[in-house]
Amino acid sequence: MTSAGGGREALALADSEPFDVILLDLMMPDLNGFEVLARLKADGRTENIPVIMISAYDEQSKATQCIEIGAEDYLSKPFNAVLLAARINPALNANAPRNARPSISNNWAWKSKIRKTCCSTSCRRQLSNASTPAKN
Length: 136
Known about the structure:
- The protein is of the alpha/beta class.
- It has a single domain, classed as Rossmann fold (3-Layer(aba) Sandwich), CATH 3.40.50.
- A 5-stranded parallel β-sheet has the order 1-5-2-3-4, sandwiched between helices.
- Helix 3 links the parallel strand 3 and strand 4.
- Helix 1 runs parallel beside helix 2.
- The protein starts with a strand and ends in a 7-residue tail after the last helix.
């Protein structure tokens, strides 16, 4: 997992290496999440990377704005790790045929399915502190 300290760094990372999914915080230094998301979706090299927005804002209007710009999903912080896994699965498999999509939403197997993830430092910290849920 790769983390960025701010919006400009996130854009530079996304431009320099391929990511399977980006977890993007709305509140970042230098460029906010809306600006980063808009730039990612406007760039042909990064427009197809699934982006899941994560923010301390718990306002429907912010979530709606993110989805309209091109985010696959929106989670409020603090986020639940199981819910994050459930949201990452469809984002990663949006273009795969339904019968070819793995069911990984209720365990941490999604972590091994993702080659590269870019996220903010605060998201990475929360993921690192999350306890791994037991498999059903």
